[in-house]
Amino acid sequence: MIVWVNGAFGAGKSSTARELVDLIPNSTLYDPEVTGGGLRGLLPAKRLAEVGDYQDLPIWRRLVVDTAAALLAEVGGVLVVPMTLLRQEYRDEIFGGLAARRIDVRHVLLAPEETILRQRIDGRSEYGDPDVDARVRAWCHGHLQPYRDALDWLTEDAYTVDTSALTAAEAARSVADAVLAGRAAPCGIVQTPEPTGQTVAAGVLLFDDRDRFLLVDPTYKPGWEFPGGVVETGEPPARAGMREVAEEIGHELDTVPRLLLVDWERPQPPGHGGLRLLFDGGTLGPADTERLRLPGAELRDWRFVTEEEAADLLPPVRYRRLRWALRARERGTVLNLEAGNPVG
């Protein structure tokens, strides 16, 4: 289990987390700041200069998940993680990656009143260098607006503790009580276990009366996707696509969808690759569209898009697959692809 202590920069996450490990049995502190610091010595300066925050580096988000999982495998028990996460898609990606490893995350938000928070930021002096401390205080103040912008989803997602009148020890006691009593429940993001070998996945293209196709936005990984998922053992791929469409958006396909293409995806660590199939699920009428429903734990949104619009939403490998699927649909044929390129 992980207790993720979130909050604005300067909210007292680190000091609360240090107290918390003494209150939750068999717990260990993991600060992802250490991972970010390590990347400064690993990545080229040019790559580091491309981002304003190491959280914007995909490698940081991946390493946070991998490191947390490795620590739990090593020491067991509970991991206490003090880290500000203000971008919902990053929260989704990290918590989804942990869920894939069957690791529960209890998300806790430390939320003092803003006047108190500003006073605490102004009182920070922890580096012994006036210039460094001034830059840290400016950084914290500069991120108050992003924190305000994120409060709607943060307070809905996390167990919130008002720490305006609490010391770090008192805040830690409040968090520990909530975790041990079950009031800070596991985060609802779910994901299937990470594969250990190549997989077969079935996606379904669903069209509207303007010939746009439907994409969904998963909570557990970046980028948009076709409705669909991994084919289970002993399951026909087309039926797997039908099952996934029903589970993901609440639409029951009347007939087995027609195959458009088969694409062999090259193994690229940490992924194992495998076969990716795309099917033509036909056209959704206005009444069908009105009945679409999303499972909140897995999908954040859906929309109908054009081929051009999809270029900004899909990762390159899926966009190439989409383009060939649309060509196969236009020609009434089935295409065989290897790593996104037609063969045979």
Can you characterise this structure?
There is one protein chain. The longest helix is centred in the N-terminal third of the chain and has 18 residues, at 58-75. A six-stranded mixed β-sheet has the order 8-6-10-9-12-13, with helices on both faces. It has a five-stranded parallel β-sheet with strand order 2-3-1-4-5, sandwiched between helices. 41% of the residues lie in helices and 21% in strands. The protein has 344 residues and is α/β, with parallel strands linked by helices.
In short:
With 344 residues, the chain is of the alpha/beta class.
Broad shape: elongated
Which series of helices and strands comes N to C? EHEHHHEHEHHHEHEEEHEEHEHHEE
Q: Kindly state the mean pLDDT as a whole number?
A: 89
Low-pLDDT sequence parts: none
End-to-end separation: 49 Å
Biggest sheet statistics = 6 strands, mixed
Percent of residues in beta strands?
Answer: 15-25%
Alpha carbon gyration radius: 23 Å
Strand order of the largest sheet: 8-6-10-9-12-13
Helical/strand content category: alpha/beta
Task: State the helix count.
Answer: 13
Annotation, overall tally of beta strands: 13
Please give the share of residues in helix: 40-55%
What secondary-structure arrangement, pairings included, does this model have?
Elements: E1 2-7, H1 13-20, E2 27-29, H2 32-40, H3 45-49, H4 58-75, E3 78-82, H5 88-100, E4 105-110, H6 114-122, H7 130-142, H8 144-157, E5 159-161, H9 168-181, E6 199-207, E7 213-218, E8 228-230, H10 237-249, E9 258-265, E10 274-283, H11 286-290, E11 299-305, H12 307-310, H13 316-331, E12 335-338, E13 341-342
Helix pairs in contact: 1-9, 2-4, 4-5
